[in-house]
């Protein structure tokens, strides 16, 4: 058994080191070759009970693997390490409503696989470069990301994050790559910076402000999706060079800080996508060249919304009989063809995720039962002594 465990541990080290080497070398041309099989894997809370203690004990190039849990910490990273959560939905760094959840002061840092929430600033990058912030949920902070880097340094990579319901995101940093993220709500500011590549992101119900007067050169906005076109000063056609008609990847819907990913595929332009929990429906606007044929295919997770049966409405007309609806154990797909003009689509179900998640209901029920039992015991005791 001990030999088996050692083999598993060796495999984990080799796997994560190889993964990070490929990730960093792809982005930075192999400049971080010192990340090798000799790097340690430090586990939290197995080896250290807090993430900060693990960082303090780590050496350059070490990997800190954080297991599922809520970590009420304000973390400072002042050395080149890899910080990885095992599950971004359930490995949570909570700022307790103040301070900076994560402050990065060193070059060559990776933060991947966390929910970062409830802080004055979720992630602050202070003068560091070659930092990768990827595959995180950054939610419910006053400032989601605050990045300041010298123009003389290399930029950073922000990739495949869900950045939602923060007051704003502030990029005062040049030459970054901002790729395949979903920005939901709040405001995005790019000030006194240039040379940023902003590509294949979803901007959903958020405002974008770019300060072109103080920027040393233009930022490159290409192929992003805009749920509502609210922006100021962004160069290019309609605020974006070659904007996408449909969301890139999945459209994230947030309920009680949980993320549900809806797939929307269409040859139309989709906008004003909304999920209405109380009405048990999802709606969006479609448009295209008038008179041409259009289609959409929407795939909805069943743990978000179900229809028994579904109703499909276009401009308040029931067209369910014309839709093709397919089901599997986890998802429903709804396909519809139509002739293009401006339309509003509503997909109406019969069940949506409750406003209070089932676990909350369970705890509420347990509390009520406990209180009732306690009351009855006291009542019976008082009756006997009377």
Task: Describe what this molecule looks like in 3D.
This protein is of the alpha/beta class. The chain folds into three domains: 2-173, no CATH class; 251-352, Jelly Rolls (Sandwich), CATH 2.60.120; 356-386. It is built from three helices and 37 strands. It has helices at residues 2-28, 51-57, 358-385, and strands at residues 41-44, 63-66, 69-72, 75-77, 82-85, 91-94, 100-104, 110-112, 115-117, 121-126, 132-134, 137-139, 143-148, 157-159, 162-164, 168-172, 177-179, 182-184, 187-190, 197-199, 202-204, 207-210, 220-222, 225-226, 231-232, 251-255, 258-266, 269-276, 281-287, 293-301, 305-306, 311-314, 317-318, 324-327, 331-339, 343-348, 351-352. The strands form six sheets. A nine-stranded parallel beta sheet has the order 1-2-5-8-11-14-17-20-23, with helices on both faces. 37% of the residues are buried. The model is unreliable at 1-18, 20-35 and 357-366 (pLDDT under 50).
């Amino acid at each position: 058994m001990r030999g088996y465990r050692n083999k598993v541990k060796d495999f984990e080290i080799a796997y994560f080191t190889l993964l990070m080497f490929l990730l960093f070398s792809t982005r930075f041309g192999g400049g971080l070759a010192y990340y090798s099989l000799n790097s340690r894997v430090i586990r939290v809370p197995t080896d250290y009970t807090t993430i900060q203690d693990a960082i303090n004990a780590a050496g350059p190039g070490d990997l800190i693997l954080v297991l599922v849990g809520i970590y009420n910490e304000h973390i400072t990273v002042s050395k080149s390490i890899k910080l990885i959560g095992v599950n971004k939905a359930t490995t949570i760094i909570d700022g307790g409503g103040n301070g900076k959840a994560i402050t990065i002061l060193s070059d060559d840092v990776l933060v991947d696989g966390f929910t970062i929430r409830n802080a004055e600033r979720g992630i602050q990058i202070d003068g560091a470069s070659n930092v990768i912030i990827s595959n995180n949920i950054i939610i419910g902070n006053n400032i989601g990301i605050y990045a300041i880097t010298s123009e003389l340094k290399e930029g950073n990579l922000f990739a495949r994050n869900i950045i939602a319901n923060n007051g704003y995101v502030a990029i005062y940093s040049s030459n970054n790559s901002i790729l395949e993220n979903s920005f939901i709500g709040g405001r995005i500011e790019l000030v006194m910076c240039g040379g940023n590549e902003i590509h294949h992101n979803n901007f959903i119900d958020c405002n974008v402000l770019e300060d072109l007067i103080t920027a040393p050169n233009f930022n490159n906005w290409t192929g992003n999706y805009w749920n509502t076109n609210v922006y100021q000063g962004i160069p290019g056609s309609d605020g974006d060079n070659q904007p996408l008609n449909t969301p890139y990847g999945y459209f994230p819907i947030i309920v009680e800080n949980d993320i549900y990913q809806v797939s929307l595929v269409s040859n139309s332009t989709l906008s004003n996508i909304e999920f209405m929990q109380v009405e048990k429906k999802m709606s969006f606007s479609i448009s295209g060249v008038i008179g041409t044929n259009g289609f959409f295919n929407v795939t909805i997770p069943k743990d978000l919304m179900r229809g028994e049966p579904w109703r499909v409405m276009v401009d308040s007309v029931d067209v369910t009989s014309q839709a093709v609806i397919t089901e599997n154990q986890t998802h429903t797909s709804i396909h519809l063809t139509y002739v293009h003009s401006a339309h509003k689509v509503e997909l109406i179900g019969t069940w949506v995720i409750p406003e209070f998640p089932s676990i909350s209901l369970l705890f509420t029920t347990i509390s009520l039962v406990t209180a009732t039992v306690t009351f009855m015991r006291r009542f019976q005791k008082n009756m006997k002594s009377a």
